[in-house]
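User: Predict the structure for this protein chain, please.
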Amino acid sequence: MSTMIILTDSQVVELNNRIGQIQRLIENAQIIKAGGTPQPAAVTETKPKVTVRRRARRNLLNETKVVEIKQRLASKESATKIAKSFGVHVSTINNIKYGKNWAHIKVPVSS
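Assistant: Here is the predicted structure, written as structure tokens:
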């Protein structure tokens, strides 16, 4: 036979608070085994933090190379082909093309 209990909102909040307190007590409690030595209630193993080594950043481009890249872009050579020849990603070439990187390098227009 089950019994139904009706609680107010404040009673539900108080009950939840007490349940949380009891859970924290259980988590922090120490269990004394028959030998009499206190042992932690729950032993959780944590995995060691894995650090990711990043490649050292290499400056593959300098002002001389950027001038050449801009000249080749001006001659309508594809960004993919230029990127392969300089050993950089095509987005690097496009960033140069649209002025996101190396915008301070100006290349005179050859006629």
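Residues 61-111 form one domain.
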